[in-house]
Design brief:
It is built from 18 helices and 29 strands. By secondary structure, the protein is α+β, with helices and mostly antiparallel strands. It folds into 3 domains: 172 residues, 2-Layer Sandwich (Threonyl-tRNA Synthetase, Chain A, domain 2), CATH 3.30.980.10; 244 residues, Bira Bifunctional Protein, Domain 2 (BirA Bifunctional Protein, domain 2, 2-Layer Sandwich), CATH 3.30.930.10; 94 residues, Rossmann fold (3-Layer(aba) Sandwich), CATH 3.40.50.800. A hairpin with an 8-residue loop joins strand 9 and strand 10. The two termini are 34 Å apart.
């Protein structure tokens, strides 16, 4: 980010944090018995958590917002004070959450408060000059939140809001939010009959319906074809493994809270897998490898299971069972530069194939505590930097932000609404090759430790599908659409011909449905439009006689009549071109 961009971001965070203070002031004025906790700025705005005896309503939000406008109109200065711990205890004696925060501040650390009018908050700041600077804001919603994110603590109420430097920017943001609500994958998933989640019988578990299954099959087929073209082999591994496997990998030490309880099989503990990588390593270790065998590029659409708290589950974006488009690259040190360039190039190709072109890289380097020789870290980081440079990718450097076991690149893509989604990860791993004692025989006849790179390209099929739904607002490109064309009969008299047309198209690989119900033509066309079908093929008496179809395109409108074979060539060509 540029220096100007950093300054603008800081100013926006300061504005939003100041708005959170104004909101807390308004709540205390209207509901004096409410207890205040914390109110930070966040990416989309700000929030403040309150302990209050009853749920806040939408009517309450309207009253709070009105009170905030009065506080803003008064242009009350934000005043910073540095106070003693004892004085702070006196100021916040009626605010138990503030006292708890205060008592945890290290001895000797300055204790600062901010006042505007009669409202005072324990806060480091900074803030805008006065409340009058916060003119463009809106309260958005209320949600439950546990104090400090721990479900063992008191449940609070979190009021979300947003603020911008100008009303025009706020209005633009609200329009985006309205559009985002229309594109919500949970709503569209239900309306288009794509998937559902087993909330009643298993939260965070996804049921892919027939239409969603068609899209998933199209994604998986394309994914496999492209991986084979790019020199990968496909693996299939079990859904569970003995505890000793996860002990060797370190998951039971470092990842236990995200794994499900073991099951006893023949007196041994088995765990459902949270990751695929240990199994890929076991495949590697079935024989001694030579440098001539490397690189190995092994990919798997492997379903894994991780425990997520119920409060964070969110449609397809946060689930407990999901299929990773996983891959592991095992190679020699001499091969690593080329392998990283190729995996990044491949990643970019795949994202562009699915219609995403605005992509940014985030490169995380060696933290203070890390495993692996410094020379390997240096080589790995250089390979990542060279790859993003050669791909001419915009990237940010996160010094010291890598995992203890290796540096990584995260790719974030922007969707049609400009929202950024973290998707692809290219992660070096200097830990697992050591833990599993992975080796290969080099040209010198000696054993050497290979490089290992984890790569999740789409992230997971579930989360990717959620992003894909919202990006296209459910109107998928023809090659991905669950129903690519629907044959609509004008009356029941054309039912046989409609079925014949559908059969011809299916022979050409087109996903096609027939609507020969005894309904009005306009009703059937509107229903196809609501279902976002790319092509509607109307057949009446005239079309039967000329062995043609009257074509309506979702994107281009009425295309007129054309022979069935001509339309088949057209749609098959379009599907092939988009892929």
């Amino acid at each position: 980010m540029t220096e100007k961009g950093d300054k603008e971001l800081l100013e926006l965070e300061t504005l939003r944090h100041s708005a959170a203070h104004v909101m807390a002031d308004a709540v205390k004025r209207l509901f004096p018995e409410a207890k205040i906790t914390i109110g930070p700025a966040i990416e989309e705005g700000f929030y403040y958590d309150f302990d209050f005896k009853r749920p806040f309503t939408q009517e309450d939000l309207a009253k709070i917002e009105k009170e905030m406008h009065g506080i803003v109109a008064a242009a009350l200065p934000f005043v910073r004070e540095e106070v003693t711990r004892e004085k702070a205890r006196g100021i916040f004696k009626a605010e138990p959450y503030k006292i708890e925060i205060l008592e945890e501040l290290p001895e000797g650390e300055p204790i600062t408060i901010y006042r505007h009018g009669d409202f005072v908050d324990l806060c480091r700041g900074p803030h805008v000059k006065d409340t009058g600077k916060i003119s463009a804001f809106k309260l958005m919603s209320v949600a439950g939140a546990y104090w400090r994110g721990d479900e063992k603590n008191a449940q609070l109420q979190r009021i979300y809001g947003t603020a911008f430097p100008s009303q025009a920017e706020l209005d633009e943001h609200l329009v985006r939010l309205e559009e985002a609500a229309k594109r919500d994958h949970r709503k569209l998933g239900r309306d288009l009959d794509l998937y559902s989640t087993m909330d009643e019988y298993g939260g965070g578990l996804v049921l892919w319906h027939p239409k969603g299954g068609r899209i998933r099959d199209a994604i998986e087929t394309f994914w496999k074809e492209q991986h084979y073209k790019n020199g990968y082999d496909i693996l299939y591994t079990p859904h569970l493994g003995r505890a000793t496997l996860w002990e060797t990998s370190g998951h039971l030490d470092f990842y236990r809270d995200s794994m499900y309880s073991p099951m006893d099989i023949d007196g041994n503990d088995y765990f459902i897998k949270p990751m695929n990588c240990p199994f890929h390593i076991m495949v590697y270790k079935t024989q001694m490898r030579s440098y001539r065998d490397l690189p190995l590029r092994w990919a798997e659409l492997g379903t894994v299971y991780r425990y997520e708290k119920s409060g964070v589950l969110h449609g397809l974006l946060r689930v407990r069972g999901f299929t990773q488009d996983d891959a592991h690259i095992i190679c020699t040190p001499e091969q690593i530069d080329n392998e990283i360039r190729e995996v990044l190039r491949f990643s970019m190709f795949m994202w562009k194939s699915f219609g995403f072109t605005d992509i940014k890289a985030y490169l995380a380097t060696r933290p203070e505590k890390a495993v692996g020789e410094p020379e390997r870290w240096d080589q790995a980081i250089a390979a990542l930097k060279n790859a993003v440079t050669e791909e001419k990718l915009d990237y940010e450097l996160d010094e010291g932000g890598g995992a203890f076991y290796g540096p990584k690149i995260d790719l974030k893509v922007r969707d049609a609404l400009g929202r950024e989604w973290q998707m692809t990860t290219i992660q070096f791993d200097f830990n697992l090759p050591e833990r599993f004692d992975m080796n290969y025989i080099g040209a010198d006849g000696q054993r050497h430790r290979p490089y290992m790179v984890h790569r999740a390209l789409l992230g997971s099929l579930e989360r990717f599908f959620g992003v894909l739904i919202e990006h296209y607002a459910g109107a998928f490109p023809t090659w991905l659409a669950p129903v690519q064309a629907v044959v609509i009969s004008v009356s029941e008299a054309q039912s046989t011909y409609a079925a014949k047309v559908a059969s011809i198209l299916r022979e050409r690989g087109v996903r096609v449905d027939v609507d020969d119900r005894n309904e009005k033509l306009g009703f059937k066309i509107r229903e196809a439009q609501v279902k976002k079908v790319p092509y509607m093929l109307v057949v009446g008496g005239k079309e039967v006689e000329s062995q043609a179809v009257a074509v309506r395109s979702r994107a281009s409108g009425d295309l007129g009549a054309m022979p069935v074979a001509e339309f088949a060539d057209r749609i098959v060509s379009e599907i092939a071109e988009k892929k």
